[in-house]
Amino acid sequence: MDMFKNNKYNYGAFMLYMTMFLHGIQAIILSQNADYFASQWNSDVAGVFSVIAWTGIGKIVFITFSGVLSDKFGRKPVAMSGVVGYLILFGALLFTQNITLAKLVSFIGGAATSLYDGSINPALMEIYPDNKSTASIFNKGFISVSGVIFPLIVGYLAANNMSARTSILIPFILTALVFIGFFFAKFPDGDIKKEQNISAAEAIKTLESNQSASGTTINKKKQPNFAIDGIIIIAFSFFIYSSFYLFQQVVSIYAINIVQMSEVASRSLASYYQIGAFAAVILSAMFMARGIRDMTLLVVYPLIAGITALTIYLTPNEVTLTIGSAIIGFTAAGGALQMGNSLLNQFFDKNKGRNTSMYFFAMSLGSYIMPTLASSMEASNNFTLIMLLDAVVAFVAFAIMAIIAIRYKHIFGVSGFSNSKKN
C-alpha cells in the first residue's frame, strides 16, 4: 500500500502492531483457559469472569492518564512500559495459584493495555498522518490474527492432553522478544526531540503543527463542539467495545451451555469471530481506499452486529452461532473501535494523546461492566439473556453514529455517506 512506501518509521509501526498481536492474546487468555484457571485458583467459571473484570479496572485507572503521559514523555517510553506490564502478566499467570493474586495480575494486564491505548494509536496516526483510519484498523488486524491462532493452540493442547501452561509460555516469550525489538524502533516525535533538542511534549506539539500545516488533517467548515461531538463519539467507544468484548468473552461458554456444542466446536467460534474481524480489516481498508468514508462504515457495521446478536438470541443453534460469530467479528470487532478513535481525532486534531485517553477510558468501562454482568447472569441462571444484552449495546452504538453522521455534514460540509474521491 502507498502508506508504507518510503516511510522510515515502518519498523517502529511494526513493533507497535506486534504489541497489538500480543493484546489479542491477552484479551482471551483467561476465557480460553477458563477451566484450567478455575482449577488453579480453586474457583469456577464465574470466578474467572470476576478476574477478567479486574482487567477492566486496570484499564479504567490507567487510561485516565496514559494519554497525558504519552503527550508529555513521548510515545515510545509509554508503549514500552505497557510491554513490561505484559511481561509481568504472562509471567505471573504461569505461577499464580490463588484468585486474589490473579485479580492483581489481571489488573496489571489492564493497566498495560491502557498504556498501549494512550501511546500506540497516537503514534500510528503520526507515522501515517494521511491514513489515520487505515493505520488504526491495522491494529485490529494484528489483534485478529492472534485471536484466530491462539484458540487453535489452546484447542490443540486440550485435544492432546497437553498442559495449558504452554499457551501462557508462548506469549511470554513473544513479549520478551517485542521488548527487545522496541529498543531499535524510531518514532516521529522522538526524532524531532533529538534533532531540535527539545522536550518530548514540545516535540509532539511541533509534530502536530507540522502535520496540520502540511494538509494532513481534514478541512472543517465549522468548528466542532467537544461537549457535543467529542462526548458522543467517546460514548460510542463504550457501546461498540461492549458489543464485541462481551461476545468474545462468552461465546465459547454460551455455545457449550446453551447450544450444547462440543468443547472443540465451541472454541472454534473464537477463530471464526477473529477471521471475520481480520476480513473486516482488509475489506475496510479497501473500501476507504476507494472513497467510502469511515463515517459510513461506522453507521452500517453496528447495525448489522445488533441484528446478528438479536438473531442468535431468538434462534440459538449451531448454525446461527457459527455464522453470527464471523459476522459480529466483521462488523463489531473488525476495526470499528479504532475507526471511532480516528474519527474523534478528525474532529479534534490536537492533543491526540488526551483525546485517545478519554476515548479508551469510556471503552474501558465496558471491559469491567460486561464481564461483571456476564458473571451475574451466569450465577443467576440467566445466561440465555446474554445475546439480547449484546444486541442492545450494538443498536445503541448504531444510534450514536447515526447522530454523528448528521454532525459530520454540519462540520465538514460533506455527507458522511458521500464518496471521498469525488469531493
UniProtKB/TrEMBL annotation:
Residues 12-409 form the Major facilitator superfamily (MFS) profile domain. The keyword 4Fe-4S does not apply. Keywords: Membrane, Transmembrane, Transmembrane helix, Transport. This is Major facilitator superfamily transporter. The chain crosses the membrane at residues 12-31, 51-70, 77-95, 141-159, 165-185, 226-247, 271-289, 296-313, 319-337, 358-377, 383-406. Its main location: membrane. One of its GO terms (cellular component) is plasma membrane. It holds the Pfam family MFS_1. One of its GO terms (molecular function) is transmembrane transporter activity. The keyword Oxidoreductase does not apply. Belongs to the major facilitator superfamily. It is a multi-pass membrane protein. It is found in: Cell membrane. It comes from the Bacteria. It comes from Tetragenococcus koreensis.
